[in-house]
Write a structure and sequence with these properties.
Blueprint: H1 3-33, H2 36-62, H3 69-91
Helix pairs in contact: 1-2, 2-3
Length: 93
Amino acid sequence: MTHLSALVIAFKTLALVFGGLITYFATKAYRRTGSPALRALAVGFGFVTLGAMLAGAADQFIMGTDDRTVALAIESLLTTVGFGVILYSLYAD
């Protein structure tokens, strides 16, 4: 493992922790208030966090070192969906 790989793993881990915490607190706020916007916010951050987790896992455990395009596509898809839901949450009543 190169130093760059260790750095990527560290950043992916931090993204997973921070994304998980944001999702947790948004879900907690939704349960307290019942706001559909907070529910959508939690779901959006959940997708972004899930994308980071699945891409990191695919990159480290499933994919060979030659083809990381699938891991990048998974992360990009889930990040795009997550940000779309987050954008919706900003306009939901």
